[in-house]
Structures are given as C-alpha cells and as structure tokens.
Amino acid sequence: MIRLRVGAALALCGLLVTAGAAGADVKATEKTQTKFEGMLGRMMGLFGGKAAKEGIVSTVSVKGDRKMTANEDSATLVDLAEEKVYEISLRDKSYRVYTFAEMRKKMEEARAKADEDARKQQTREKKDANQKEMEIDFSAKETGKKREISGYSCREVVVTVAVHEKGKTLEQAGGILMTVDSWMAPKIAAMREITDFDMRYAKKMAEGGAMPSAEQMAQALAMYPGLKQAMARMQSEKVNMDGTPIETVTIVQSVTTADQATNAKKQDNERGESPAGALGGMLGRFGKKKEEPKEQAADAPKGAATDGPNKSTFMTTTLSVLSIGTSVGPQDIAVPVGFKLKG
Questions:
Q1: Considering the entire predicted model, what is its pTM?
Q2: pLDDT tens, position by position, for the chain (343 residues)?
Q3: Which of 178, 181, 185 has its CA nearest to residue 301?
C-alpha cells in the first residue's frame, strides 16, 4: 500500500508541477532522455540501444480534433471527433485502431485490478504491527536564475518532494527524494493547444468513468494534506508556475540514514576483501571506461540534487522542448498513405 500511495503522491506532485502550462495549431518537437544509475544503468547502456544512449525525440502535432505524437519508431493518433485512437508502427508500416469505448473498458479493468491489489496489500499491512506510516514534504522555490534555452528566456523553479517515515525527517529515517528542476519561459500561446486537447481527451474518457472524477481527485488530495499546504506555500512564497516549461530535469534519489550508509560501506569493504568480492570488483571494472570527476554545472541551483554519503541517484529524466511551430499539415495528423490495418 505504501508503494501505491507513494506512486500516487508523486503522480499528483507531477500534475502540480506541470499545471499552468496549457488556440492555434501547434507542432512541438521534444526530446526525452532517461538515465538509470548503478547496475540497471550499465545494463541499459549495453542493451538499451540508441534510445537509451541518446534519448527519444518526439513530435507532437495538434490540429482541431486530432493529435499525433510520433517518434522514430511509432506514433499515436487521437481523434476526438471519431473517438478513436490509432497506434501506428512506422517500422512495419501498419496500424491498429481502438475506440474510446474499448480503451475505457481496458482502463476500468486495470483500475479494478489495482484496487484489488491495494486491498490485498492493505490486508497484509494490517497484519504487520511494525508497519510504518509515511508522509510527504513538498517545497518549491524561485532560484532567481535565468537562461536562454531554444531561443526562449527562461527562469528556474525547483520543486522537491520528500517521502519518509511520519514523525521523522528525511535525514533521520531515510526515504525517497524527487527534485524537479524546471526552466520556465513566458507562457507560449501555441502550447496551450496541447494542454487544451489533453483536457478535452480526458473529459471524453471520464464520461465513461475511466478517468478519476473531481470527487476522486479530492479524496486523493485529502490523503496528502501536505499537497494542499504546498499549493498555499507556493502562493505565499510567490513561486510562479505560470509559463511554459522548456527544459525539465527530474531526479529521483534514495536517502539512507547515517547508520544505513555506514553498514552498506562496511558490507562493500567485506565483499572486496574476500576472493569472490575481489574478483567481482575486477570484473566490474573490466572494460569500463574511466569516469571523469563529475563537476556540478555552474548554473545548478543552490541545494540542487547531488549525491553524497547518504544520498544516491536512482534515475534522472530530462525533457527538453527543441522547437515550437504553428504550421500543421494534413499529413502531420493522419495515418501515412499505404499503411496496412491490423486486426
């Protein structure tokens, strides 16, 4: 249940962070790159292919009731008037079609399964007398720094979300820390069309009960009163999220207590002293390029997410808007000619 609550909380915080960026036609090119650290990161580097190394460049085109999101391999076309979604494979030149009704049914089935899993998890947790209650801390601040990105004058806003044991600080109990570093341009009118389209799409899906209702969202927020306080704090501290994010870096870190960090270091040392540990260390270093010391960027915010004795980065995701245009042709929002329909 804790994992579900943490996931829901981070999702809600993500909505909070991106809210405010919302009409004319628009074609935006974006690049998303996700980097994992440790063993998972090395595996992704070896087997993840081009996307893992260089990121994924996507083009989002909106015109009227149609929205196409396309990358090098695939595309998704949503048609609000037809109430259909086209999943397009650009590699084998084929596509599938799903109605909104079919998608609502799948979403309902997924939500029912999630509810059942949550009930089972809650039952297990009730049997655990030592189960710890978690809480969430939220902070947001304007750093005062400015940068020119993709031709836009941007200001920096840093949002942090900490999940830890209730009644203790993050440093005392350990937990999860998410830092969202956003560079905001003044509101770009054309980009509102993407947000407006997504809102219309969500509304249509909600008509069938597939999306959370306002009451359900209110209940979710009630589970985390800190989020309501966070909204009020953003206003009182004059944290202005009004604008269009041009570059957003999200860093997820695990935080350990001093004792946990000491024990982990001790275990690493013990493994290194044994023959098996020494051999593992040699194999781990074999073929690995020497890493240059990481230097903190000159424009990094004060108190930005950095690793330390008790803090290690698990995942970093960077979303960058590369270009924004208002010219959308018929071919940008249609299944390419000659593509075959799959059953």
A1: 0.66
A2: 444 444 444 444 444 444 433 457 999 999 999 888 876 666 666 666 676 678 899 999 999 999 999 999 999 999 999 999 999 999 999 999 999 999 888 888 887 887 787 777 767 666 565 667 778 888 888 899 999 999 999 999 998 888 888 888 888 888 888 899 999 999 998 888 998 999 999 888 877 554 555 555 555 555 555 555 555 555 565 566 789 999 999 998 988 876 766 666 666 666 555 555 544 544 444 444 444 444 444 344 343 466 666 788 888 999 999 999 999 999 999 999 999 999 7
A3: 181
